[in-house]
Amino acid sequence: QSISGAFESLYKQHGVAGLWRGVTGAVPRVAVGSAAQLATFASAKDWVCERQWFGEGSWAAVLAGGMVSGVAVAVTMTPFDVVSTRLYNQPVDADGTGKLYRGFLDCVLQISSKEGLLGLYKGIGAVYLRLGPHTVLSLFFWDELRKM
């Protein structure tokens, strides 16, 4: 019925641990994505300025850096998204233990062995369509605000 109802239901069924189910996939995802985003943005922006494609401090250099960063974010985060989604959506037993995967690493190993490494990149197009514009706009506005 509501968010508070969902929290209550999860807590009643699985306790506090149920509220944190899937965190082992979410935390590495955010850490890797943020690192890739910031590192590639600064490097790409500096690179296009060094090549004199765009002037230092120009909005075009910021936009180019954001575009490169968006690709890097999609490439680094997609495997974590795939694993997190599978961990979140797997059926659980009465104790809240997953029936398909024992955890993050087990999920990665099962996907890799059954579907190959490209199995970790299912949906990368959709991930880029979501994260690419978000990354470009976030970094563009962040850079503009930093100048102020």
TrEMBL record:
Belongs to the mitochondrial carrier (TC 2.A.29) family. This is Solute carrier family 25 member 34. It is found in: Mitochondrion inner membrane. PANTHER family: RE38146P, SOLUTE CARRIER FAMILY 25 MEMBER 34. GO terms for cellular component: mitochondrial inner membrane. It is a multi-pass membrane protein. Signal peptide: none annotated. Pfam families: Mito_carr (PF00153). Its main location: mitochondrion.
